[in-house]
Amino acid sequence: MGFLTDPNGIFMELLRKISDIVFCNILFCVLCLPVITAGAAMTGLAAAMQLIAEDREDEGRSALKEFWQNFRTHFRRATLLWICGLGGQAFLFLYFHTVNGMEGSLGQLYRITFYALVMIFFAGYQYVFPMQARFGQGVRRTLVNAWLMAVAALPWTLLGLLIPAAAVILTFFLRPERFGGAVFFWAIIGFGLTAYLRSLAYLRAFRRIEQNRQ
User: Fold this and answer.
1) d(CA 9, CA 32)
2) By C-alpha distance, which of 84, 68, 72, 86 is closest to 28?
3) 204 within 8 A of 153, measured Cβ to Cβ
4) Under a CB-based contact definition with an 8 Å cutoff, are residues 194 and 126 in contact?
5) Domain spans of the chain?
6) How far is CA 49 from the centre of its chain?
7) Mean pLDDT of 79-91
8) Which secondary-structure segment (H or E) carries 195?
9) Residue 88 has pLDDT above 80, yes or no
10) With a threshold of 0.70, does the pTM exceed it?
11) 35 phi and psi angles, rounded to 5 deg
């Protein structure tokens, strides 16, 4: 049973990772409440989860400190990126309501284009805040590189879309009568856990960029 109490053992390391994810998740939820700060909160969460995924916490950098530092450092750019994302989602919302009332083959064609636009938008936008946390580039360059990355790292892009989609389905739709439990799961660890799992995929793509820079 010594492995359960060994401070350098696998079990204690797993507990530390889980506790860091939980604390970052709670901080993320709190900082998202004003809505306008959600972009900076997503950047901070992405930075913290990348730190955990790369096992860089032994360098004297805690996940919470990494979260807060990136939240403050990238606040302005992350907020602009968040506003751009809201604008994109508003466009998709209006587009859907415009084409949803159309009938016949033309209406069907426009609805297909709507689903294609949704896929393209979220395929690229999922990279925006992780890339901002990782590279700290300007707003325009981050947006352009996010969609370029979506194409260049297509397998990881699809995996990045699948992880949160599967998490939402498992928590909310399989047992809809347990809605309260699903909300509790997301409030405590859901956002952090999905961000951590996605970071494992994103980092493979990001390392290619960093190798090309060297």
Assistant:
1) 35
2) 68
3) yes
4) no
5) 2-213
6) 10
7) 97
8) helix 191-213
9) yes
10) yes
11) 70, -55
Distance of CA 135 to the CA centre of its chain: 15
User: What pLDDT, on the 0 to 100 scale, is given for residue 71?
Assistant: 97
Using CA atoms, how far apart are residues 155 and 152, in angstroms rounded to an integer? 9
Give the alpha-carbon dihedral of 9, 11, 13, 18, to 10 degrees. 180
Mean model confidence pLDDT for the chain:
89
Instruction: Return the axis-axis angle of helices 191-213 and 139-152, rounded to nearest 10°.
Output: 90
Tell me which amino acid residue 98 is.
Answer: T
Residue 177 DSSP code = G
Length of the chain: 214
Closest CA to 41 of 52, 31, 51: 31
pLDDT in tens, 142-161: 999 999 999 988 999 999 99
Q: DSSP string of 29-64?
A: HHHHTTSTTHHHHHHHHHHHHHHHHTT-GGGT--HH
Amino acid symbol at 161:
L
Which DSSP letter does residue 176 get? G
Backbone angles phi, psi at 81, to 5 degrees: -65, -35
Rounded CA separation 171/150 (Å): 27
Query: Which tokens sit at 205?
Result: 């793509």
Instruction: Report phi then psi at 66, rounded to 5.
Output: -65, -40
At position 142, the amino acid (one-letter code) is T
H/E element, 101: none
Whose tokens are 């990279």? That residue is 127
d(CA 55, CA 36): 31
* pLDDT per position as a tens digit, 70-83: 999 999 999 999 99
